[in-house]
Amino acid sequence: MDLSKIKTLIAFVGRSNISELTVTEKGVTVRIFTTPGQAASQGAAQAPKAASAGSIESARDASSATAETSAFPVKAPVFGVLHRAPAPGQEPFVKVGDVVEEGQTLFIIEAMKVFNKIAAPHAGRIARLTEVDGGEVETGDVLAEIA
To answer: How many CB atoms lie within 10 A of CB 97?
Structure first.
């Protein structure tokens, strides 16, 4: 396994919410892990990335403008392919206007064949939702807003 691949794996673990990754290639095994306190401090140190204008959909009216001021953004913790439904052809986990509970699955982000469930950080109503489905998202992209 070459050094550039190892550096890529280290960067992936540092940006994701996984705590350990083991990869074996050509008889060489690399184990990368983070300690619980280390992952939290790295996430806080990263500057949030602004979402692109086309990545959020919302019905804009006077009442939604008021809701936006108190909306909490749900950001992508890792880069990867965003899935809004549990499987192709199935209904998405959530739609705009749905009421969600804390811990409820909102999305799945697939990164290096690892499926990361993105859960609601708190209860509320989905005010905005990304249009991306089956496409790539970057760490820090706004995926949804919960009011």
So the answer is: 10
Q: What is the mean pLDDT of the chain?
A: 77
- Closest Cα partner for 46 from 81, 4, 11? 11
- pTM for the model stands at 0.54
CATH topology of domain 53-146: OB fold (Dihydrolipoamide Acetyltransferase, E2P) (2.40.50)
Q: Are 59 and 87 contacting, i.e. CB atoms less than 8 angstroms apart?
A: no
Between CA 76 and CA 74 the distance in angstroms is: 7
Q: Are 145 and 73 within 8 A, CB to CB? A: yes
What are 100-132's pLDDT values in tens digits? Answer: 999 999 999 998 888 999 999 999 999 999 898
